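Technical annex, item 7. During the second reporting period the consortium partners agreed on a shared format for inverse folding records so that results from different sites could be compared directly. Each record opens with the tokenized structure and is followed by the designed sequence. A conforming record, contributed by the partner at site C, is shown below for reference.
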């Protein structure tokens, strides 16, 4: 289980680093827009991301 967690963490870091590496201007503009969102909007984006991730995980395990 620990190896799976580390692999998932590594994949997350690779995906998170892809946009700033490939398109730094787009990443900067996106980050600027995120900082202008309200707390509720940011929470909604976070919740949506977690739900999509959970659904993908359940789908991959089936």
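Designed sequence (site C submission):
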């Amino acid at each position: 289980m620990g190896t799976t967690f580390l692999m998932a963490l590594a994949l997350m870091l690779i995906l998170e680093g892809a946009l700033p590496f490939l398109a730094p201007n787009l990443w900067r503009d996106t980050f600027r827009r995120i900082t202008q969102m309200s707390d509720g909007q940011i929470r909604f984006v976070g919740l949506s991301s977690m739900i999509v991730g959970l659904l993908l995980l359940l789908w991959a395990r089936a």
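The chain is about 90% helix and 0% strand. Residues 2-61 form one domain. All partners now use this format for quarterly exchanges.
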